[in-house]
Write a structure and sequence with these properties.
Radius of gyration of chain A: 25 Å
CATH architecture of the largest domain in chain A: 3-Layer(aba) Sandwich
Helix content of chain A: 25-40%
Strand order of the largest sheet of chain B: 2-1-3-4-6-5-8-7
Number of strands of chain B: 8
CATH class of chain B: Alpha Beta
CATH topology of chain B: Rossmann fold
CATH superfamily of chain B: Thiamin diphosphate (ThDP)-binding fold, Pyr/PP domains
Distance between the termini of chain B: 54 Å
Helix content of chain B: 25-40%
Low-confidence stretches of chain A: none
Mean pLDDT of chain A: 95
Number of helices of chain B: 10
Order of helices and strands of chain B: HEEHEHHEHEHEHEHEHH
Largest interface: A-B, 68 and 58 residues
CATH topology of the largest domain in chain A: Pyruvate-ferredoxin Oxidoreductase, domain 3
Largest sheet of chain B: 8 strands, mixed
Low-confidence stretches of chain B: none
Structural class of chain A: alpha/beta
Number of helices of chain A: 17
Largest sheet of chain A: 8 strands, mixed
CATH class of the largest domain in chain A: Alpha Beta
Shape of chain A: globular
Strand content of chain B: 15-25%
Strand order of the largest sheet of chain A: 6-5-4-1-3-2-14-7
Oligomer: heterodimer
Chain lengths: 565, 289
């Protein structure tokens, strides 16, 4: 019996590998199991290779697995495209199309299956095999199959249910790898991009503008369906310049507004970050990172937009950057981004990535609660002499919206005085830079967002951010169970950083390991500029994205003694 | 909104002094803006002027309504966001030829074809004035400017012809020396249901010389009686003239606006159901039973 298994299905477009993974994931979520599902695709628009990998566990999961326990291969040529990224467990069972001979020297327990007998439902045969092998919830999967084909004819549903039964019989012939679990209340299954979109709706977003870009487009898709239902607007613009422009316009007019993009889009949005910051018009940008620079690797995750998100725009440009650690956190950081943007009249970037954005994960509906804040509007008493950019203690000035007779003002991207009048004077520039920057101090006081886990008195402290958190969490649990004392500090807000807590953590650790998927070690560079992080006790593991961070990789780094920073 | 005391042109003036050069055509445009807003009794708090960057884009700072003097080329996306977020507002985008056709050209294309419900006033001076005299997209081919010392290699864009081709539902041309005529065109542009493009020839006395104004004034003529405003072909006969500068409403058709479209989208999305609850949205993520 196992408590944690991972299965993977590899095929070409039309084989239904992804659909098979979806059906299994949904059924397991319905039985209260914990699931993390990832997909990988070749670059082709249609018909290319695809793989669907599902990790299923009775206990909560924080990351995708390092190795695969069962693999279905419809076509070995497709498998070859993913082979580098797929680590098969020593006892991995491989079910393959019997008409396609395995490559020479392929090690593993190979079981030929005549998938070609039912070409249109071979993925459902595979679902049956894996269900029997792992003892997955049979009735839940039957319900999933009926749901999947609910718009098809009864004959199609019957054919697929029969294919499932055939798979069950085939799988029963293989020695069992049964998953041990007790059914419990169903969980939700959603992607990080969907969680961000849901966070936007929860926060009261009524306007979204975006331009399609991988791997963020699911946010546009979700909101284009749901915003109109609640009386909101979802606009697809001609480019990212226009997307963030429309967001700033809608926000000026009083709506909570958001856009979503990926690296190339964020590059274009840099100019409007500056306007949003100097004119103090709230804006929210969800940036789902992919491999860069330029077009880079659109379908794979990386953490290399960090410095761009932190510093994009000419001039001194305060902005807030938040980073979710997992799918559920994509919901919370998006709500926080709205809360901060609205209350402090500042651009807020949610720095998600492909691994969080496009993986689907089980979460509890009850966890999707979060306080919602609002913009500070002028009080009626402000009307007599309304000053849009009044220099207040925390830097936040009440913001009127069109329609308010006493709140009329003209804003601009020029430096301006407290009334909004353009000014080229040094004294005004210095004062207003100070006012805008002061907001960051107030945000830093109020939003100390971080996760700290692992040993209380660590021998080794790991610093990481974003989607690396899941693998680091699992690695620390394994290491500490084996007698190590490792801890991690993960800032969920990167600008402004929770400096005090971060510094305390660094000071409390004899050795520090920085982990990130950026070849130029952007996170490490940033930390060095923000806190006292001695080179003499710091080891940096910074590599390109394109392959997710594995638990074993982290554990290996954590055993190294020498310092390389 | 009803007002007991009507708004006068003075109600629309801010105390900011324009940065424009003496004799600039944009003063005339600003006067027309004051008059048009007063004639239409547009409540200042319900009116938003949005501009990009350039001499003419300074205009919102001089008008006592809500206003944004934004980024170079980005007036139209911002104005689109304002209008969609609050359709009851009067939204007017203003700017120059470089702002709207060069750096902001892509947004002009899409605002026109979407028929965004706003008035777009382009002050066209055939030059980059704020940066002190470089060729712009409407500078005539062959002209010597600070950036084209041996002659401008590019043919000039025809803004009105472009707007008509792109699907703008209302296109007109005015001349900044004719405040009365311009005011009437602005009022029509503001009242038009859809994307109203008003190209105002607004000479730059500093970088195009005193003669430009005189030459243009001599070329101005009204549209001939009987002009069919619904005909693209008829309108296009007047857009790229060299002998004359024909002013008036060149083209006008009725079609659904972007605001109409989104109202329809909301109706379709909702169907006959009530506003979805949190539970309705979460149901998407619940496993089937």
């Amino acid at each position: 019996m196992k408590s944690d298994i991972t299965l993977s299905i590899v095929g070409s477009g039309g084989d239904g590998a992804v659909a098979a993974g979806d059906i299994i994931s949904m059924a397991c979520a319905g039985t209260g199991l914990h699931v993390i599902k990832t997909e990988a695709y070749g670059p082709q628009i249609r018909g290319g290779e695809s793989s669907s990998t599902v990790r299923i566990s009775a206990a909560p999961l924080t990351s995708q697995a390092d190795s695969i326990d069962a693999l279905v291969v419809f076509n070995w040529a497709d498998f070859a495209r993913f082979a580098d990224e797929m680590n098969l467990a020593d006892d991995c069972v491989v079910f393959y199309e019997s008409k396609d001979a395995p490559p020479d020297g392929f090690a593993g327990k190979l079981i030929p299956v005549d998938f070609a007998e039912t070409p249109k439902s071979k993925n459902i045969v595979a679902v049956g095999i894996l269900t029997a092998l792992f003892g997955l919830p049979v009735e839940g999967i039957r319900a999933g199959i009926r749901h999947r084909f609910s718009k098809k004819t009864a004959a199609v549903i019957d054919t697929n249910l029969q294919a499932f039964d055939r798979g069950l019989a085939l799988g029963a012939e293989t020695p069992s790898h049964k998953l041990s679990f007790k059914p419990s209340a169903p969980r939700l299954l959603m992607s990080g991009n969907e969680a961000s979109a849901l966070g936007a709706l929860h926060a009261g977003c009524s306007f979204f503008a975006g331009y399609p870009i991988t791997p963020s487009s699911e946010i546009l898709h979700f909101l284009s369906e749901w915003l109109p239902k609640i009386g909101g607007t979802c606009l697809q613009t001609e480019d990212e310049l226009a997307a963030i422009g429309a967001v700033v316009g809608a926000s000026f007019a009083g709506s909570k507004a958001m856009t979503a993009t990926s690296g190339p889009g964020l590059s274009l949005m840099a100019e409007m970050l500056g306007l949003s910051s100097i004119a103090e018009i709230p804006s929210v940008i969800v940036n789902v990172q992919r491999g860069g620079p330029s077009t880079g690797i659109p379908t794979k995750s990386e953490q290399s937009d960090l410095l761009h998100a932190l510093f994009a725009s000419h001039g001194d440009t305060p902005r807030v950057v938040l980073a979710p650690c997992d799918v559920e956190d994509a919901f919370h950081t998006t709500v926080d981004a709205f809360n901060i943007a609205e209350e402090y009249q500042i651009p807020a970037i949610v720095l998600s990535d492909q691994l969080i954005g496009q993986r689907r994960e089980t979460i509890d509906a009850a966890s999707l609660e979060h306080e919602v804040r609002r913009r500070r509007l002028p009080a009626p008493s402000d009307d007599a002499e309304y000053r849009r950019y009044a220099d207040t203690e925390d830097g936040v000035s009440p913001m009127s919206v069109p329609g308010m007779a006493g709140g009329i003002y003209q804003t601009n991207g020029l430096e301006h005085d407290v009334t909004g009048r353009p000014s080229a004077m040094y004294a005004v520039h210095e004062r207003m830079n100070g006012k805008r920057t002061r907001k960051m101090k107030a945000i830093a006081e109020e939003y100390r967002l971080f996760r700290r886990f692992g040993s209380v008195e660590p021998e080794l402290g790991i610093l990481c951010w974003g989607s690396s958190t899941g693998s680091v969490h699992e690695a620390i649990e394994i290491m500490n169970a084996a007698g190590r004392n490792v801890a991690a500090f993960v800032p969920r807000i990167l600008a402004p950083l929770p400096i005090e807590e971060l510094q305390d953590f660094v000071d409390s650790c004899p050795r520090i390991l920085v982990i990130e998927l950026s070849h130029s070690a952007q996170f490490y560079q940033y930390l060095r500029s923000q806190i006292d992080l001695p080179r003499t006790k710091t080891l940096v593991h910074a590599r390109s994205g394109g392959k997710s961070l594995s638990v074993s990789e982290i554990m290996q780094m954590a055993t190294l003694e020498e310092v390389t920073a | 909104m009803t007002c007991e005391v009507p708004f006068t042109t003075n109600d629309y003036k801010t105390d900011l002094k324009p940065v424009w050069c003496p004799g600039c055509g944009d003063f005339g445009v600003l006067n027309s803006v004051y008059r048009a807003l007063a004639d239409l009794q547009c409540a200042p708090q319900d009116t938003v002027l949005v501009s990009g960057i350039g001499c003419s884009s300074r205009l919102p700072g001089y008008v006592e309504t809500y206003g944004i003097n934004s980024l170079h080329g980005r007036a139209l996306p911002i104005a689109t966001g304002v209008k969609l977020a609050a359709p009851r507002l009067n939204v007017i985008a203003v700017g120059g030829d470089g702002d709207g056709i060069a750096i902001g050209g892509n947004h002009f294309v899409h605002a026109a074809r979407r028929n965004v419900d706003l008035a777009y006033i382009m002050m066209d001076n055939e030059i980059y004035g704020l940066t002190k005299g470089q060729a712009g997209p409407t500078t005539p081919e062959g002209d010597k400017t600070k950036s084209t010392l041996y002659g401008n290699p590019d043919p000039a864009v025809d803004p009105c012809g472009m707007a008509i081709a792109l699907g703008a539902s209302w296109v007109a041309r005015g001349f900044s020396g004719d405040v009365k005529g311009m005011t009437e065109l602005m009022k029509k542009a503001i009242r038009h249901h859809g994307f109203a493009f008003l190209n105002i020839i607004s000479p730059c006395v500093t970088w195009r010389g005193d003669d430009q104004h005189k030459e243009l004034r001599a070329k101005v003529q009204q549209l001939p009686a009987g002009h069919d405003v619904t005909s693209r072909e008829a309108a296009l006969r007047f857009t790229a003239e060299s002998e004359h500068l024909t002013v008036g409403v060149l083209y006008e058709v009725k079609r659904a606006t972007l605001v109409d479209h989104f109202a329809e989208v909301q109706r379709k999305a909702r169907g006959n159901k009530s506003v979805p609850t949190r539970e309705d949205v979460l149901a998407v993520f619940r496993p089937p039973v």
